[in-house]
Fold:
Amino acid sequence: MLIWWFGTGLLLWLNRLAPRTFSVSLLGAMAAFGMSIAAIEVSQAITTPAAAYVAFAAGVTLWGCLELPHLFGWLTGPVREPCPDHLAGWGRFRRALGVGIYHDLAIIAVGSVLWLVLLDSPNQVAAWTFATLWLMRWSAKLNLFFGMPNLDLELVPERMRYLATYMADRPMNALFPISILGGLLLVWFHLAIGWSPASDFSRTAALLLATITGLAVLEHLLMLLPIRDSGLWRWAVMLVSTSKIAKT
Structure:
């Protein structure tokens, strides 16, 4: 939970800094990406609870390293403009797909390589973690596209506000109950493994995956409830504001 909360806040904090810092942040992300790959390589043959934590943290870090250039507006897609009002249906979906297609392809590429490398490895926690984040992210994107009532865009920078035009403000959509049910079933599946008489490694891995999936389900629910999830990362905004005040 700490990795999820602090990691998301760190990305939001870096994203709200001055654009001149983005290149330095990206260099740091590349270094973190390389260290995560090394950690996965070292831990893939080890089946201890510590190795499960290392692989899990590495999988989340890989995900964050791909999210950062997307938030900077560098790894997005050919479409970087608001959606025209007249577009609907398939045309609107195709244009929305073009908003972040390069980022999605990068995720698919990294995830595919990760699965191929770990296919016969005893420790596949990094691959499962990355796949879970990808699945729940696409679920969230589709739900926002089809329409949800709580479109909290407070932490989205001005350069990315055009994304709001590809989201619909509706009480709910038909996909949302399926997303929640699917997420809860996945949590139950992992918990069932965690409660079974398995090894310490299997229990640790299962509970880590159950937790990250449960947090993703919570983020889905916050799109329905009148609660601003941006408050969870208010500290990241305050850090940026404090640094600007100190410089002036």
In short: The longest helix spans residues 49-71.
